[in-house]
Amino acid sequence: MEAVARRKAAAYVCRSCTRQFQRQLQRHYSSAAPRPDIYDVVCVGGGPAGLSLLAALRANPVTSHLRVALVEAQDLSKVKSWKLPPNKYSNRCSSLTPASALFLDQIGAWEHLDQTRVQPYHEMQVWDGVTDARIEFDWAPGSAPVEGTTIAYMNENLNLTSGLLKRLEQLGGVSVFEGAKVEHITFGEETEDLDLSQWPVVHISGGKQLTARLLVGADGANSPVRAFAGIDAKGWDYNRHGVVATLELEGEGWGGEHTKIAYQRFLPTGPVAMLPMPGNIATLVWSTTPENASLLKKLAPKDFVALVNAAFRLSTVDLAFMHTQGADQNDEYSWRLQHTPFNPRALPQTVVAVQEGTVASFPLKMRHADTYIGERVALVGDAAHTIHPLAGQGLNQGQGDVQSLAKTIEYAVTHGQDIGSIMSLESYVSERYTANHMLLGVVDKLHKLYSAESGPIVPLRSLGLSAINALGPLKSFFMKQAAGSDTKLF
Amino acid sequence: MLPSSPLRQLAPTIARRVRNTKTIARLASTPQPCSTSTISSPSTTTQRWHSNHSANPGPSSSSVNADEISHFNALAATWWDPHGSSRALHLMNPLRHDFIQDCRSTSPYSSFTVVTEESPSDIPKSADASTTPNTSNVQKLRYLDIGCGGGIFAESAARLPTTESVLAIDPSPGVLAIARSHAKKDPSLSPKLTYLSSTIETLPQLRPDAVEKKFDVVSCFEVIEHVDHPALFLDHVAQFVKPGGWLVMSTIARTWTSWFTTNFMAEDVLGIVPKGTHDWNKYIKEYELRGYFEETEQKRRFWGRPRAMGVVYVPGVGWKEVPGSEKVGNYFLGVQRIAGEDNA
Predict the structure, then answer these.
(1) How far apart are the CA of A415 and the nearest CA of chain B, in angstroms?
(2) ipTM of the shown complex
(3) pTM, 2 dp
(4) Biased-composition ranges for Polar residues (chain B) (predicted)?
């Protein structure tokens, strides 16, 4: 009743008047009003970013006394007990940089991932679909960062969230509200001796209200927390979809089980990438037009496999033609392949099957929030930025955010700052915003650069790839960036 | 060149010459703060550094200048605005804690220290589910913050898990009202933080043997440059410091550099500090302040060797510790009370 009246009032009355009205209501029902349930940190969203943040806060003795809560719409027990047979893999995988892996290790989560399903890779082959200019990313002697020769780790997202949940269970001390939707977020009340009028109150399904000293939005690209904070996110849609699938190859890769290779070919419609998973499994990320994506999802498995093989082998003209066929790509591919010369060892091994039910797609966009903080609000991960997946950096950016925010909170606690105040959150934005913005820009430009099929840009970009390939130090710089082992640019 | 005169002579003469006429004129038009007894009458502003002689205005009078009170009353409204008039102070605040931490951890008289602090190396690398910072076996600290203003330091001290209580005092009713209303915005503060409209002189005297009522940390940040009789002021402060506890101060050295940076650049050109905040003539050089604690045998028995830390404000970056800069600009000075007897 009271809440309804307040919401109705809010629609017609200015904010300060509403506050006054609320205060009157408060006084009127003061005996009935429940005492606010106050948390130091309320994290909305139980994805990799939110769970890592809570694990980081709980694992650090300086911040472990904070009262923390997690609000997640999904049923987390299903995620935690997630299990697939050893030869089946989820279609949503991410590349974790050594920097992200190190952070996950520091917060004690890495060991909770099923290591038999994590695949490090050591080489990258990237080439231009139009000109065939190529760059080979492998570590020249002496150029590898100290962690070893791993460029990054391929891992199923569910393996990560499941591992983080296991770590949180081990740490304890998190009030988890799962299967709980955020209905709305309001401000707290002002009474005679307590003024919570700038404290966010999260109303979740079931009527529970959580008052937050710091409200963390780890709630994805359409973040309700960001909307509550009035922070705008700017950017554009690429008019491209990312098609994902779990593939089975003819073998475990040209380098065997100990030297795994990631492949990426820039096609005019967008990059297609095949990333190694354990054994003969690989995961596909194919950025393409929405029309091509819907065709790919409709194809019979053998035709889908043919089109994926074609995407790494055939000319862009042949490939474009095959997308106009409603079916029977398999026959077309066999015929055209005979007339296309290529070096099989420079390409991923042939795909022999696609795992059932793993072909899916999602729209690609670029978004960047105007800021990551407001009074008693901080945004992390996709709530703060959405990036094109071509560099495999989305999840790693989120981990970088979390590491920085956890450090900011630790500093605030040891210096008596209010962890929700703008003053104490400022260092989080200054550490992350420019770094994220640069990466968003670089990846966005890369996408646009390789979307051109002809014109003066095409020979220039090939020259770019070939030149980078020839220049050892420059390549080493790019690889270190990809591995997140150098400056924290990525 | 500034004459390097002993601190008893230089500061008072300049202060008297520059301030008194202005003070009288302003007093007439300024609404009197409610606690009138805390304001010094202009006629008693004789010698700032003259401590224990006939010019002593007595315990009922104060070292705090009325002019200063009205200036800070006017600033009250923007005190907590992160981009407002006190941004430089907000940015400096974490350094205050670092300095206190530094003083307490390197205490040469630790046998006197009633409180021992957990050293960072004792903290386990990864905590188990149940472990929270182990503060139960650590005696928590009592803070007295003199000239607390809007409560930037007082609030932060109260939030530290190692703090038992904070008593924060200030004679400006306007800023205290701001401090109180801001403290209401954080429910964790009220059990530990108390504001009192008072100067150090009007604070109830403590019995010399009431050690448990004294304070582990007595702070006066950016205060000494605003009081009329620094020596007298410090004489009063001494009794509130627990034996083994620390008196921690910060202020600005009176040099051409500090005039240029804090008066001309900060107030007039950049506007990062409200105009009229600083009276350069009241600035105290690091060796002058240090000298107070070392000038007599009696003082040397009472206080340990002062520790100093110079800090420099870099626009766009914040405050940075710069060794040696205590001689030219903003600096911290910390001194541990080593004597058990108040009148040692």
Answers:
(1) 5
(2) 0.77
(3) 0.80
(4) 47-65
